[in-house]
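Extended Data, panel c. Modelled sequence:
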Amino acid sequence: MRRLLLLSVFIFLSAIAFAQDAEIPITIVEFPIPDQAKAYGISEFRSFVEMDRPFMGDGFSAKFAPFISENIADYPLDSEGGATVFKKVVDVEKTDSIGTVFFTVHFQYTVCQEGAEPKEYTFGTVGNGTTDEEALDKCFRNAAIHVSDIAGSITIHPSEFTVSSMVSGEYILSCGKKDKVAKGDEFHVFSKRNGQDIGKLYAVNVKDDVTFAQPIHLKDQIIAGDGVERVRMLGIGANFYYDRIFGDNLNCMGGYLEYFRFFRFFRFLAGTEYINGLDDNCWNIYGGLKTMWHLGYLDLSSIIYIGRGYADDDWRYTGGSVKLLAEITPMDWLKFGLEAGYSKWLADHDDEYSNYGGFLLGAGITLRF
């Protein structure tokens, strides 16, 4: 019985911890109604009070705090990832027409979170009716739509950009060329509910204001409002490898540079390699093409290159290699890989030198900058 009680307490506490982890704490501070709008009794409208209901919805734990100052710097921020939302009615405009009353109300919401710049949202809503009450009520109900958008933008892990939506298997990100995003860039995705890193995306199509991205690997489902942070790199990869060439029993040690920004499925490379085991050891230089597919945590590439070989003080070989490379990425800047393929180098019509090559197996690392 005692064990059962302890188990029940453990499950209960775990459930509480999970629930808290899944909710974003929000503090709402309401600025005083401007004198020009007090005549309309805005604070007495139920629809005015309920327009902040999106902050009370699933995923949020909201409370109201007293107004103490118009300077938002006077309010302490939640160091646990919560948000402080400042709600302000800027002005109220009334227009009379024959048999109809029109009201326009302008709002300002400012969202502040630790570690992020304050975000200010301003919008206006219009309502009409036969009475002041009816027209204002419509204004506040229309305003709730904008408040929903603001609430949807709040995440426990503030990020520079967010996931806006998903269309045909691709995720639309709130960034583009204006933010210096390029095709092939990678992004970490952070859950708006608990701030956890839930996977990576890479850009496949970049417009001025939006980016279309596909998943590299995901640990959880992405939803609109999740934060994304770009993996900032120059776009240069330096690969160092060792291959064993069977048949001629040669050792090959080499490296190449590749450029991966602005490219989706392929990138160009240039490199050099040292062949040990020939009568006269050989240096090769080459250029080629590398294609890539993301398969979950595994990057699968095909590589083809051709070049010239230098031995005994002269360029004596022409040839190249075809490889299949499988890599894992434990860190953004580092990859470990295994490769297999075939290499063939032909001597330039010189009986003193023999052709060499054969099937190969190897391993390597890639450093990304």
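The two ends are 59 Å apart (CA to CA). This feature is highlighted in the accompanying rendering.
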